Amino acid sequence: MILEPSLPIEQVHATLVDKIGRYFSNCNKRQAVVGLSGGIDSAVVYALAVEALGVDNVRGILMPSEYSSIHSVSDSVELVNNVGGRYDIIPIEKIYAAFMREMNGYFSIGEWFVAQENLQARIRGTIVMTYANRYDALLLNTSNKSELFMGYGTLYGDLCGAMMVIADLYKLQVYELAQEINAERLIIPLHTISKEPSAELKPDQKDTDTLPPYGVLDPVLHALHEEGIPADEVIAGGADAQLVERIIRVKAGAAFKVAQLPPILTVGEHPIAPAEKCL
Q: What is the pLDDT of residues 64-86, one digit of tens each?
């Protein structure tokens, strides 16, 4: 899957590195911070930032919780070590427990609420934004276009940052870019590329708990948005009608999030956000 016939993944790679560098120069900043989850999105953003700004100017912050897998930490550490970078580990379990203790009246024992997942994202957002504030750095957002279309992000949590690096790339394209980054030497760990995506915000969570597999979702998103094919024609072409209807409904419901996104680095002709948010 590609963005445009005239825009190969090598050019996407070069464009994003160039735009990161120019954005930092325009802002008179040198330092960047990236929250590292062990997943493909944060790994790709970190690798791009290192290439654009130099390894000494990019700090990775690992923020494991009680729901984080062992490999969420080990894959992040391997990524940073592959480029000779620096990282800090700031566990959020005690911070999350303190929030839940003070807000216990809002939750029922034995039940799970999406608000608990969003709270973890907002704790992490506070940590990386505080680091950026303390060290005069810019936080690089790691959300992709597939997630944004499906409202799969938390305002003031994983949607915060000074810029959105891969928000014009669908999830399948992020995987393609990861392979391109690894073309000459191993930077992004192979396990990061091969493992099943998960936000790790509750026990045994997988993206497919709430989203269709990206191999199913992304072609439909691409047809509707990039190609501008009407929904009825997408359905007639074989797409699941319930999925198409869900995408249209969720996109409308997530409009208030899109309106508050940080600036987006663009590589195609159809970014998710209004023009004034695109770089």
A: 999 888 889 999 999 999 999 99
CA gap 234, 230 in Å, rounded: 6
Predicted pLDDT at 6: 55
C-alpha 35/C-alpha 88 separation (Å) is 10
Q: Please provide residue 210's backbone torsions phi and psi, each rounded to the nearest 5 degrees.
A: -125, -15
Per the CB < 8 A criterion, the answer to whether 145 and 126 are in contact is no
3-state class percentages of the chain: helix first, strand second, coil last, to nearest 5: 50, 10, 40
Helices (H), ranges, the chain:
9-26, 40-53, 70-82, 93-102, 114-134, 145-149, 171-181, 190-194, 214-225, 231-236, 241-253, 255-258
**pLDDT tens per residue across span 175-190:** 999 999 999 999 999 9
Please provide the average confidence, as pLDDT, over all residues in the chain.
93
Please name every residue paired with 86 in a beta bridge, in sequence order, or none if there are none. Answer: 59
C-alpha–C-alpha distance, residues 72 and 182, integer Å? 19
Give the angle subtended at the CA of 122 by the CAs of 243 and 120, to the nearest 5°: 80
Cα separation of 177 and 171, whole Å? 10
Query: Does domain 9-207+254-277 match CATH 3.40.50.620?
Result: yes
Q: What ranges do the domains of the chain cover? A: 9-207+254-277
Look-up of token digits 């810029």: 163
Put simply, whether the predicted model's pTM sits higher than 0.90 gets the answer: yes
> Dihedral, CA atoms, 107, 113, 117, 122, nearest 10 degrees?
-50
